Amino acid sequence: MNFEFTEDHLMIKESAMDFAQNEIAPSAVQRDKNAEFPYEIVKKMGELGFMGMMVSPEYGGAGLDTISYILAMIEFSKVDASVGVIMSVNNSLVCYGLEKYGSDFIKQNYLVPLAKGEKLGAFALSEPEAGSDATKQKTTADKDGDFYVLNGIKNWITNGTTADYTLVIASTDKEKAHKGISTFLVEKGTKGFGYGVKEDKLGIRSSDTCSLTFESCRVPAANMVWDEGRGFNFAMNTLNGGRIGIAAQAIGVAEASLDASIKYAKERKAFGQTISNFQAIQFKLSDMAVKVDAAKLLTFKAAALKDADKPYYKEAAMAKLYASKISVECALEAIQIHGGYGYVREYLVERYLRDSKITEIYEGTSEIQKMVIARALLDQK
Ligand code: CAA
């Protein structure tokens, strides 16, 4: 067992930290307030290799491991969790799945620009009546010659209107239930592909979330990812990696809550001394630090298993379950330490609470993670 990062890992962390501080942080408050998508930031992230971190250089990626990706995700999410989720979806849910399961045609035509950050991806699994119960896909894809015709609605799609390419999970054979589900890559602008209203969210406000509509939308059969009937396995397998990314996003927010609390505790005076002298505050800081470290250990363990090509779905669920829980807890404690100042927008900690909450919901709610863990423990998967 080795708890040391390599020189390369430390360099990635350093460069992500620099980018986060210099390029992402300065406009984060304004983007949260106005729900503005960070177009320029995402473009620069692509140029620096952060949008296809784990993709092989053969397909335009940076060829790095999951540990490097987690380190970068934490640094970016520390200053802006919205940037974290945009990056996470492109890396974990789109690029990873295309590299692992896509045909050569898909890799050359779609993965390369996605991994280079020239194009942005989205992942459309959820529906109005298929959230946690994801096998109940109502969106259909009917074969018609060299095309599939898509009809249906997708909900809560991150990068919804901004994505150039969207992976759409749809039923190709209702009779076969989840074994009759397939994945299609749909290009923006395809006739019959439309957008619902952009969601006005509690947190991660500068990320773009909306519903998607498909009305007789014709998609070339060559744009099917993996085989017909493997769409649900595709979604589950990519989500396992996605959950490690969301754990990292949650850790970034938790660490930001801890750092802000330490800084404030050293500055704020009450009863003639800084509040950092009070045991009530010290114990809160200690608890937060232990939680952040424990979440990191779980998340790096899941990432290391993935990098070693070993089973990691249970560990990914554990990492996401715990990291998202402590992210909300740390944000709440940060507000408590800041007192009234924590409750107003002038200080950043109220945003940390708003941004942390979603990590307990998307890419599988905490309840779903517990289900995945329990099934693994009981050997029911
Ligand atoms: N990894 C790999 N495969 C898995 C899996 C996992 N974690 N969980 C289930 N599967 C596989 C099973 O092995 C089975 O495959 P086979 O039929 O080939 O053997 C298949 O999936 C069906 O599994 P179950 O019979 O267990 O199905 P179920 O309906 O009882 O439970 C579920 C499935 C685990 C609840 C699943 O529906 C699930 O994970 N739901 C949550 C969905 C989710 O995470 N949504 C996130 C939306 S995307 C998003 O949020 C992105 C964003 O924009 C940020």
Give an account of the 3D structure:
- α5 runs antiparallel to α7.
- The longest helix has 37 residues, at 231-267.
- The chain folds into three domains: 7-120, Acyl-CoA dehydrogenase/oxidase, N-terminal domain (Butyryl-Coa Dehydrogenase, subunit A, domain 1, Orthogonal Bundle); 122-229, Butyryl-CoA Dehydrogenase, subunit A, domain 2 (Beta Barrel), CATH 2.40.110.10; 233-378, Butyryl-CoA Dehydrogenase, subunit A, domain 3 (Up-down Bundle), CATH 1.20.140.10.
- The mean pLDDT is 97.
- The radius of gyration is 21 Å and the shape is globular.
- The relative contact order is 0.11.
- The protein has 381 residues and is of the alpha+beta class.
- The chain contains eleven helices and ten strands.
- The strands form three sheets. The protein has a four-stranded mixed β-sheet. Strands 2-3-7-6 form a four-stranded antiparallel β-sheet, with helices on one face.
- Bound molecules: acetoacetyl-coenzyme A.
Q: Top keywords for this entry?
A:
381 residues, Butyryl-Coa Dehydrogenase, subunit A, domain 1, Butyryl-CoA Dehydrogenase, subunit A, domain 3, four-stranded mixed sheet, binds acetoacetyl-coenzyme A
